[in-house]
Input
Amino acid sequence: MNNRLRELRETNGWSQGELAERLEVSRQTVNALETGKYDPSLPLAFRIARLFDARIEDIFFPDVT
Output
């Protein structure tokens, strides 16, 4: 799954650690999300969308193969 998480985080001027604190996850989780190594659970995806005032589908989108 691809995502715009890094772009949104950088637009807000947040480090991975700062975003992790806001989402109540580890910095490693944020890194794994941004690099596509980990897909968020549905509750986490909702928290991310709420934090950025966006829809889940505007942040996360499937890989096109």
Q: What stands out?
A: The chain has a mean pLDDT of 95. The two ends are 11 Å apart (CA to CA).
